[in-house]
Amino acid sequence: MDFDTPCIPLAHIQTYFDLRQTLVPDAEWLARRTQLAPMMVRDPHELLELIVGIDQQDFYRNANIDYQPGDTGCFISTRQVLALVDQAVKALDMPYLGLAMGNLMTISHHGMAGVAAVTQPTVRSCLETISRFCAELFPPLEMTAVVEGGIGKFVMSENLSLAPYTHFFLELNMVSFYNITQHLVDEEHGLQSVDFSYPEPPWGHIYRRYFQCPVRFDQPETALVGPASLADCELPLANRLMAMAAEKTLFENIPTRAMRLLPLRLRRLLLRYYGAFPSLENAASDLGMSGRTLRRKLAEEGTTYQQELDRVREKIARQYFLRGGQSVTELAMILGFADSSAFAKAFRRWTGLAPTEFLEQHHGVKGEAVEAAA
After folding, report:
1. Assign residue 118 a region: left if phi > 0, alpha if psi is -120 to 50, beta otherwise?
2. Residues 238, 119: contact at Cβ < 8 Å?
3. Which end of the chain is more exposed for a tag (fewer CB within 10 A), N or C?
C-alpha cells in the first residue's frame, strides 16, 4: 500500500464529510456541538454546507475522484483522502477541524460499524472490533487495544504518513471515541488521560474544550488511556446477535479491498508471529500460495518479503522502546537478529538513529544505561 493505492472505500470517507442528515441547522446548537465561538457560526446553513458539502461535485473533482452519486463501489487512495481534507480545512480556515468534526460524530454517524462496536460484550471486544474495521476501512491508520500492568490503552498510529493532516485524523477519531467511551462506561472506569505523540499545536488550548481529562502532548503514543479494569467493563448495549448482524450489513453495503492487498496481508501475518518470523516459503504457504508466486506478486506491488519483514520489525522495535523496554539485546533476540550489533545497524537504517539515540530522544535514557540494561 502506498499513497496512490485505491484501497479506501469512499462510502466510509463520506461519513466524515456528509453529516447533513442528522445535523440541526441552528447556530447555538452548532456552536455548542463544535465548541466554536458563536461569532464564528455566521449562517449555520453556510457553515453546514462548508463542513459537509463544499459543493459535492467540485469537492470530489478537485481531489481527482471520479464519483457519481449512488456509486457504492468507489475506492480512493490516501492521496485523494488528503486532498478532500485539505479542501475542507482551507474552506473553513480551521486547522483544528478534526476536533470539531469528531465532536459532531455520534455512534449513529459511524453507521453499522458503530452499532457493531457498541453492541460487543466488553470494552475490550469493542476496541478489537474497531481495530478490525479500521484495518479494512482506513488502512493508513492502525488502532490497537493494549493492556500493560494496571494501564489500558487504545493506541492510534499511522501505517502511512497522513502529513500534513495527521492532526486531523487523530483529532477526529480521538474526540469521537472519547465521547462514545464516556457514554458507555461509568466514572469508576473513566479515562485517565488523552495522549498525543506530537508537540502541542498552536490550537492546543482548544483540545481542552473537548476532553474532560488531562490532555498530554509529546507522549510516546497517541492513545486514550484508562485503568486496565476498563478492558473488561461490560457494555450496556451488549447484544451479540445485533453485533453480528450489524457487521454483516456493514460489509454488504461497503465493499472493502484492504484485506486483499497482499503486502498488508503479509504484514498482518508476520505481526501474528511476533518475533518467530516464518521463512518466505512458510509465509507463502500460510497465505495459500507458493514461494515463487509470493515473490512475483510482491514484486508487482513494488516490494519484497525482506522489505515487508523489515517494516514489521521496525514497528515492533518502536513499540518496544516507546512502551518502556530498554534492552537492545532482548529486542534483537525477539526480532530474530544474530546479535545486538546486527539489530543496531538495521535500526539505524530504518530510523536514522541508533537504538541508544532513539531511547535518549524519547525517554531521556542515556546510552550507557541502555547498554547496562542489555
Report:
1. alpha
2. yes
3. C
Which of the 8 DSSP states describes residue 219? -
Cell of 172: 477526529
The model scores a pTM over 0.70: yes
How far is CA 15 from each of CA 11, 107, 158, 237, 333, rounded to the nearest angstrom?
A: 7, 11, 20, 23, 44
The domain ranges of the chain are 8-94, 109-232, 261-373
Query: What's the alpha-carbon Rg for the chain, to the nearest Å?
Result: 22
The single-letter DSSP state of residue 69 is: T
- pLDDT tens digits along 223-240: 999 999 888 999 999 998
- Cβ atoms 277, 270 nearer than 8 A: yes
Tell me which fold the domain 261-373 belongs to.
Answer: Arc Repressor Mutant, subunit A (1.10.10)
* Paired residues of 157 in beta bridges: 142
